[in-house]
Amino acid sequence: MVKISIPTLPKAPLLPRSGLSILPIPEAASYLARFLENGKGQTVMLTGAGVSVDSGIRAYRGEKGTYSNPNYKPILYHELVEDSDRGDMFRRRYWARSFLGYPPVRDAQPNPTHIYIAALQHLGLAPKLITQNVDNLHRKAYSLISPNYDKSSILELHGTLAKVHCLKHRHEQTRDVYQEDIARMNPVWDEESKEAERTGQRPRTNPDGDVELHGVDYRSFSVPPCRICEREKLKSSMVKPNVVFFGETITAEVRDASLDLIANSSSLLILGTSLATYSAYRLVKLAVEHKKPILMITTGPTRADPFMGNGLDKMDRVAGDVLGKYLDEAVKTSTGQEVEDVKRYLHTGVVKRPPAVEGPRAEG
Predict the structure, then answer these.
(1) Where is this chain's protein located in or outside the cell (predicted)?
(2) pTM of the entire structure?
(3) 78 in catalytic set
């Protein structure tokens, strides 16, 4: 049997902070300006959980790269889809916990870093974005600046919590619709969810929308069938969120699209991620192999640190500070409708830190 575990960073000696990491913010912003100018509008961005911490969504890893919640045991893909009584209990547990954990993710608002990243896209400085996040916040941010933005400009490497689908027929629904089905079939759980929202006493929510519950009997929880299957009088199959679970591989389509974006880019800008998952790390490996300039702005150790000095430069610092300062200067000397769009929203965004977060305000 193959053992599946949550990705962690390989053991490696902590490297001293590079000169880029101790530059004053204005100089760091100038360095970013030169990097983007050399990219000639073909820089691709890659983001991770660190950019969403200021929106109240915890990162998996803290400042030192350690797993922030080592006792957390998520459902693995093979457990979720197991066709047995045991699999049925795994699904009850997953959907019960996710029912409580999804509202905080759904209600989260883009923070300033999301706005800065959308601004880089809208200004054509780094028009393509690959994100490991499933929280939909990059799309919310870009839609603020440009309601009719090109949806294909954001590739969600690990999917999105905003949609679900059934495994047999691939019927897709919005997550909000499925939440309604869960609430209708589980009135006691629905009342618990509403009470948590009223009091603000929500259980700890992880980046995948799962929450921690202890001593709970999930046998009474009912998992709704696919309503489209029922409407079309088909045998209903298991419903799954449109996210990649631990132990699940990303689709060939998404994998190929991400590799093509890197291959066709001029450079790679990495923001707020430790790159612990291989699906993201291999994109950096590809960029290194193709000798593309790489700039990483994130806090703490990362899986790509060994590439430093081999085409990769790293600023060990909060990405939003550097992006915000750079954009302040960039919009001063530029004109056009895109610039006016960006100016309108540049320093907006909602900062709502999750309680008891380890480390600085934007972990990788």
Answers:
(1) Mitochondrion
(2) 0.90
(3) no
Cβ-Cβ contacts under 8 Å for 351 (sequence gap 6 or more) = 54, 55, 111, 112
In this predicted model, which residue has the larger pLDDT, 74 or 113?
Answer: 113
Q: Strand 312-316 vs strand 294-298: parallel, antiparallel, or unpaired?
A: parallel
Task: Determine the Cα–Cα distance for residues 32 and 323; give it in Å rounded to an integer.
Answer: 8
- The bridge status of strand 159-166 relative to strand 239-243 is antiparallel
Q: CB of 304 within 8 A of CB of 278?
A: no
User: For the chain, which residues make up each domain, given as ranges?
Assistant: 1-57+110-158+248-364, 70-107+161-243
* 196-247 tens-digit pLDDT: 778 776 666 776 777 777 778 899 999 999 999 999 999 878 899 999 998 9
Listed in order, strand segments (DSSP E) in 125-184 are: 128-131, 154-156, 159-166, 172-174
CATH T-level topology, domain 1-57+110-158+248-364: Rossmann fold (3.40.50)
40 CB neighbour count, 10 Å cutoff: 10
